[in-house]
Amino acid sequence: MILKVNNLNKSFGGKRVLKDISFGLKTGEILAIIGPSGAGKTTLLRCINGLEKADKGTIVIDNIYLCKDQNNKNIPAKSKEMKKIRQKVGMVFQNYNLFPHMTVMENLIEAPINVLGLSKEEALNRAYDLLKNLGMEDKKDAYPFQLSGGQKQRVAIARALCLNPKILSLDEPTSALDPELREGIASIIKKLADKDMGILIISHDMEIVKRVATRIIFMAEGRIIKEATKEDFFNSFEDGRLKSFMVS
Ligand SMILES: Nc1ncnc2c1ncn2[C@@H]1O[C@H](COP(=O)(O)OP(=O)(O)OP(=O)(O)O)[C@@H](O)[C@H]1O
Ligand SMILES: [Mg+2]
Q1: What's the confidence (pLDDT) of residue 77?
Q2: Which protein residues touch ligand 1 with a CB less than 6 Å away?
Q3: Residue nearest ligand 1's atom 13 by CA
């Protein structure tokens, strides 16, 4: 297991947003997290990326504790461990979060130099290879505002991959893309899972989920309602309970 989440709980101002969430992720798996708006999907990914502090529960990433319970308190990793974890998890945000004042290439080499300690030359080489793989090498000197939504999405994916993460988490990676680009992102995601990586993907796009996921977690109101292989999940999808959750 590259990721283990156990009994994770998170509240915002007294409102429970994550309720006893437990699941695991293995290398090579593509786990889709689906469910209605407000279910807690983004909050869950933010906790796994260390961007949000849990109230209770355990997150273990590649055998390092990101947080755990001790004496009725939730203890986050120390800064040394946190630094290691940051190198293991890549996140592509719902709104890309590219640095607007930096070119594509500058966006890509920032973390490899500052987090991994790569030389500028190594970082440039790694970034160029990734851009080439995503068909974006001719945009390396462009600024984010000069890119289309799909191009920004690919730069955000390249930036996360520059750290060579063990876990890649993607929040709605195909929203606002036309069908051709959605297809492109789907095939990129599938290829990545063949490498030494586990993927978490949040998506409302059932076509993409059907194409890429190996396993599915359905969340509603902060809880995991159902976890199953893709095949089992879609065989039971007509089940009225799931349907009513999706439209609520
Ligand atoms: N920083 C925050 N402060 C207060 N409440 C928050 C915060 N972040 C999220 N929430 C609340 O937590 C709940 C879950 O939000 P979250 O963004 O995780 O949902 P989601 O499943 O990703 O939804 P969507 O599909 O719309 O992106 C919502 O009720 C939201 O208002
Ligand atoms: Mg969200």
Answers
A1: 95
A2: 12, 17, 37-43
A3: 38
